[in-house]
Write a structure and sequence with these properties.
The complex is a heterodimer of chains A (301) and B (463). Chain A is of the alpha/beta class. Chain A folds into 2 domains: 2-184, Rossmann fold, CATH 3.40.50.1980; 191-300, Nitrogenase molybdenum iron protein domain (Rossmann fold, 3-Layer(aba) Sandwich), CATH 3.40.50.1980. Chain A has helices at residues 2-17, 31-41, 64-72, 88-95, 142-159, 164-188, 205-211, 229-241, 256-265, 285-300; strands at residues 24-28, 45-49, 75-78, 107-109, 196-199, 214-218, 246-250, 269-272. The termini of chain A are far apart. In chain B, helix 1 runs antiparallel to helix 2. Classes of the chains: A alpha/beta (301), B alpha+beta (463).
Chain lengths: 301, 463
């Protein structure tokens, strides 16, 4: 027994004595925050992204591999607003890593610097999978990305003061390119204003608001609730009078219900990347918005 | 944790504001009624009332209690947000169901094993209520968090299932936990009943622990700073629960050591495997027996009880979303050696002689999420009670029939289940068992229906 404890202690000492990695270790919950960390952190950070764009970030297992990554992370970059509530608290709890506990500098939530849409007036789960702090799918409004980028660069500078100047410089550079891109996207997507669309889940809300798309219906009757045949029938009746121009899907969605509806209301579906990596073209944040707009314009031609 | 705390705060806020809102609405309604009655007589008062209504309707929720509320607000409202903002997050799990068995569940035993005294077996027939689990948890301060799970049993008792503190700020990957908690032994031992994939525990848990092993004590865990998940842990405690027994002795009573490793294979597959060793001592661990006339008597065991387990779980999630398609395979093997003294009829003849047993068992189960909301599962349980060496029998003092519980047996069981999960917070399940736990060729056909509902704080489960 004592021998085991002694060898455990020796192991720990050994681990502590190993040379600390120069790069800041960052665990990002989604590929979007991962891409943003890459933009601002560059080579100064050692990045691990917990989920892929083909996953629903609501529903992720607290895998041992993720717990192991949380153990060594200097910074966790999360969306917040309960998007990751089913798994991130477990990672942080099991990690034994005091640096990334919520409230510490090593825990960053994008939602903390944004004003969220769709704050529910009633907290009642009969309304579906609602988020008390508002809709957490914030990444599809590029203005949000700009705000998060600024806050993130400050956080990186705080944690790694030695490279603060580089973070600030990269953030400034990113912002210049980003603002120019926003201009370009807004000009290009001007024709999308007022286009009636059907969405899968309320996770396209920020995109719709930014581009002026009009969300006329959602395929999920309530957030997180898959549609029933009866509900889809009602939707056909409702949409027949004023059909939407397009049905928007995310890369991770099951397309069955959308395809069914598409055939009946004579509106095409379009699969949007939703997150970096959701489509082959959405390689980084710029690609995410380029591809989203390109795909919408192409389907509406 | 911020999100947990935020949720707690929001729940508290919800709890606070909803009554305020509804009170505000009630107030408006009653004021309107009053207004109707007074309208003809008191023109001036009508104006005043209208003004009050306007104020009530316009005032932000928080402001209502401050100035313009015409009636006293409920206690939670009047104390403002600060008193409730630190309420712990609260979740309540309700469970229950219906049980149909072909054999009398009163006669259910696991053949060849000394009884654990736990809540084992298929449960009572017909409709029944399961345990309602109430969990409160919160950070205490920057150094500790605390959690309590109370089980409200259908027998109208409250049981403290778990109540422990956990450290938040130990360095180098260490976490310590103290209080009463489920041991880190095995895979399923730490999992609360609402998160099981079947209605009940595998037979090895029922035979070796009477359900789940827990004690009052301390646990220290260390997570290696490697990409491979490597977790080492040690526990000690008062050894109050089966297979140990309360020993009225100072110091550490028994020890548990465990190790877990885990990782990913490609993008779709994750796994965790582990081994653990539990070293316990029992002093006068008594159990009910019957003599050759069927009359009840008490026997007891005193000695060492050592158990080890090997466990593994693997999840395959081909399209990333575990709620659309996932296969979960899980299996555990346990072996226990007990050496010591067995006393026969402690309140009567009290014959005592040596006892030695080596018993083992395993289960393997698979659960397939084949559609959103739908899961099907298959489980096989098998136990090997071995041939215990009973000194009283070997010496010829007693016949083996004096220990009917230890007669040779070959317990096993097949279970299949189907569950439907309308949302993350509800589950309805059916389970069929071909149950040979008695081990004497007297198969019990059990059919059970179960509901599990979770309200309150959004839970997060371990892998």
């Amino acid at each position: 027994m004592f021998r085991i404890i002694r060898s455990a202690i020796a192991l720990v000492m050994l681990a502590a004595a190993l040379p600390a990695h120069a790069a800041l270790k960052v665990l990002a919950t989604t590929s979007d925050w991962g891409a943003l960390v890459k933009e601002i952190g560059g080579d100064q950070v050692n990045l691990y992204v917990a989920t892929s764009a083909l996953q629903d970030v609501h529903r992720v297992d607290a895998k041992p591999s993720l717990v192991a990554r949380a153990r060594t992370a200097d910074l966790v970059v999360a969306t917040g607003a309960e998007l990751e509530i089913g798994w991130l608290p477990v990672l942080i709890q099991e990690s034994g890593n005091s640096r990334i506990q919520p409230g510490s500098p090593g825990y960053f939530e994008a939602a903390a610097v944004l004003s969220l849409l769709e704050k529910p007036e009633r907290f009642d789960r009969s309304l579906g999978d609602i988020h008390p702090q508002g809709n957490p799918h914030v990444q599809l409004d590029p203005h949000n990305i700009a705000k998060v980028a600024k806050a993130l660069s400050e956080r990186l500078s705080q944690l790694d003061a030695a490279h603060a100047q580089e973070y600030q410089q990269r953030a400034k550079d990113f912002d210049t390119r980003w603002q120019a891109a926003i201009q370009r996207w807004e000009t290009k997507a001007a024709s999308l204003k007022g286009v009636p669309v059907v969405v899968m889940h309320s996770d396209q809300t920020y995109l719709c608001r930014w581009l002026g798309l009009v969300q006329v219906a959602a395929i999920e009757p309530k957030p997180g609730m898959p549609p029933t045949a009866g509900y889809l029938g009602q939707l056909v009746t409702k949409l027949s009078a004023s059909p939407p121009r397009v049905i928007m899907l995310n890369a991770y969605n099951d397309p069955k219900a959308a395809n069914w509806l598409s055939a009946r209301v004579h509106a095409p579906t379009v699969v949007l990347p939703f997150s970096v990596g959701g489509t082959p073209e959405a390689k980084d944040l710029f690609g995410l918005f380029d591809d989203t707009i390109n795909r919408l314009l192409a389907v509406l031609k | 944790m911020t999100s947990c705390k935020a949720l707690a705060a929001l729940l508290a806020l919800a709890g606070m504001t909803l009554p305020v809102l509804s009170h505000a609405a009630d107030d408006v309604a009653s004021l309107r009624a009053e207004l109707q009655a007074l309208k003809t007589d008191y023109k001036t008062r009508v104006d005043a009332l209208e003004q009050r209504i306007a104020q009530l309707e316009d005032a932000p929720v928080g402001g209502v209690s401050e100035a313009t509320a015409p009636q006293p607000m409920p206690a939670t409202g009047s104390s403002g947000g600060t008193a409730t903002a630190f309420n712990p997050s609260i979740s309540l799990i309700l469970a229950g169901g219906y049980t149909n068995t072909s054999k009398d569940p009163e006669t259910w035993t696991i053949g060849g094993f000394l009884p654990s005294g736990g809540e084992v077996g298929p449960g009572e027939r017909s409709f029944n209520l399961g345990e309602s689990e109430l969990t409160l948890s919160s950070n205490v301060d920057p150094y500790f968090s605390a959690q309590m799970t109370a089980a409200l049993t259908p027998e109208n008792e409250v049981e403290v299932e778990e109540a422990f503190f956990r450290t938040l700020a130990l360095p180098d990957g260490f976490t310590a936990k103290g209080g009463r908690f489920f041991s880190g032994f095995g895979y399923l031992n730490e999992v609360h009943s609402h998160a099981w994939d079947f209605v009940d525990q595998p037979l090895i848990y029922q035979a070796f622990f009477g359900g789940q092993f827990k004690q009052e004590g301390l646990q220290v865990k260390w997570l290696a700073p490697t990409e491979l998940f490597v977790e080492l842990g040690a526990e000690t405690g008062n050894g109050s629960e089966f297979p140990a027994s309360r020993r009225n002795r100072n110091g550490l009573n028994g020890a548990t050591l465990f190790a877990h490793v885990g990782g990913d294979i490609g993008d779709a597959t994750s796994w965790r495997a582990g081994a653990a060793y539990l070293d316990q001592r029992a002093d006068d661990r008594s159990f009910e027996n019957v003599d050759e006339f069927g009359l009840p008597l008490t026997d007891s065991f005193t000695g060492k009880s050592r158990t080890w387990v090997a466990d593994a779980v693997l999840k395959w999630t081909p399209i990333g979303d575990p709620n659309r398609r996932q296969v979960k395979l899980q299996g555990e093997y346990m072996q226990r050696r007990e050496t010591g003294l067995l006393a026969f009829d402690t309140e009567g003849s009290n014959l005592i002689d040596g006892y030695r047993s080596s018993q083992s068992g395993w289960y393997l189960q698979g659960v397939y999420q084949f559609l959103p909301r739908w899961r099907a599962g298959l489980r096989y349980d098998s136990l090997d009670p071995g041939t215990p060496r009973i000194g009283l029998v070997d010496s010829g003092e007693l016949p083996l029939s004096a220990f009917p519980l230890l007669l040779p047996a070959d317990p096993d069981r097949i279970s299949i289940m189907l569950d439907w999960n309308p949302s993350e917070f509800s589950r309805l399940r059916a389970q069929w068992d071909w149950d040979d736990a008695r081990g004497q060729d007297d198969r019990d056909h059990a059919f059970r229906l179960q509901y599990i509902y979770g309200i309150g704080a959004h839970g997060a489960h371990k892998f």
